[in-house]
């Protein structure tokens, strides 16, 4: 799956899941986080989705720039040597 195929909503939901799963127990008990994505309030979902969109855009841009910078270099063993 490429970055272009990832939906921002899907990334935001996964981020919420892993953020909740990796939170220290003392923190998760004191703040009473939402257990499931469906429990997250709409404004917070919107913020997470917006952040996911920006992250995907940045990743896609970085990947594209990296591909363009590597375009002029030969793959290993394919370089022609001239004198």
Number of helices: 3
Shape: elongated
* End-to-end distance: 43 Å
- Helix coverage percent: 55-70%
Tally of DSSP β-strands:
0
Query: What is the total domain count?
Result: 1
Listing every helix as H and every strand as E from the N terminus to the C terminus, the arrangement reads HHH
Low-confidence stretches: none
How would a crystallographer describe the biggest sheet? none
| Structural class by sheet pairing and helices | mainly alpha
Report the portion of residues in β strands: under 5%
Rg, Cα atoms, Å: 20 Å
What's the mean pLDDT score?
77
Description:
By secondary structure, this protein is mainly α. The chain has one domain. The protein is built from three helices and no strands.
How do you describe this structure in short?
The chain has 83 residues and is an all-alpha fold. It has three helices and no strands.
Topology summary:
Layout: H1 8-22, H2 25-31, H3 42-70
Helix pairs in contact: 1-3
Keywords:
single chain; 83 residues; mainly alpha; 3 helices
